[in-house]
Amino acid sequence: MGTNSNRLSEHGRGKAVDVVAFRLRDGTTFNVLNGWRSAAWGNVLRQMHRAACGMFGTVLGPEANAAHRPPRDHLHFDTASRRSAYCR
User: Fold this and answer.
1) Cβ neighbours of residue 7 under 8 Å, at least 6 residues apart?
2) What is the Cα–Cα distance from 72 to 70, expressed in whole angstroms?
3) Helical residues (DSSP H) of 1-88, grouped into ranges
């Protein structure tokens, strides 16, 4: 369910995913919580966030809204039908 309403969320519809961490082919792992503001992974995560805006109806980063800060620990991607992508 949505956080402040009786409306079913995109997660509840099976149309959304939250990504917390990544594992690269070489075994390297990094997560959104520690990586978003880091020198090592911040730029990579922001590029992923921007690139996803063309593929998903909604893309939310760690600083998108009150539900995403703190802990700032994930990227949200969903396929909600919109006239244009909602990316924050």
Assistant:
1) 1
2) 5
3) 32-35, 42-52
Token pair for 64: 């998108």
Q: Give the Cα-Cα-Cα angle 46, 7, 13 (nearest 5 degrees).
A: 60
22: closest CA among 80, 70, 73, 81? 73
pTM greater than the 0.85 cutoff? no
Q: Which two tokens stand for residue 75?
A: 């990227």
In this predicted model, what pLDDT tens digit does every residue of 36-81 receive, in sequence order? 999 999 999 999 999 998 889 899 998 887 766 667 799 999 988 7
User: Count of CB atoms within 10 A of residue 75's CB?
Assistant: 21
At 87, give phi and psi (nearest 5°).
-125, 120
Query: If you search the block for the tokens 């966030």, which residue do you land on?
Result: 49
Residues counted in the chain:
88
